[in-house]
Amino acid sequence: MAVKVTWALYASVVDKDGDRFMTPEDFVQKYLGLHTRIHHNPKTVQLIAAVADTTKDGTFCAEFYSCLVFSL
């Protein structure tokens, strides 16, 4: 249950089917807490997210998040 609650906190995009997704900014800045200062480099955020984006579609789905949480 806790995974679903935290997922809802960080995933800011909802598609037409009601599925939630994290943007690169959601994942890197909100979830990981990296590069949160006002004058952060947006390209750095994108690069960090790209390393973790297994599907290379620019978003993070609930399945990715669940696998990440359970692997830690």
Give a quick set of tags describing it.
mainly alpha, metal-binding, 72 residues, calcium, Recoverin, domain 1, globular, EF-hand-dom_pair
Structure, explained:
The protein has 72 residues and is mainly alpha-helical. The protein has a single domain (2-71), classed as Recoverin, domain 1 (Orthogonal Bundle). It is built from 4 helices and 2 strands. The chain has helices spanning 2-10, 24-31, 42-52, 62-71, and strands at 13-14, 20-21. The protein has a two-stranded antiparallel ribbon. β1 and β2 form a beta hairpin. α2 (24-31) crosses α3 (42-52). The longest helix is centred in the middle third of the chain and has 11 residues, at 42-52. The radius of gyration is 12 Å and the shape is globular. The model has no long low-confidence stretch (mean pLDDT 92). This is EF-hand domain-containing protein. InterPro entries: EF-hand-dom_pair, EF_Hand_1_Ca_BS. Keywords: Calcium, Metal-binding. GO terms for molecular function: metal ion binding.
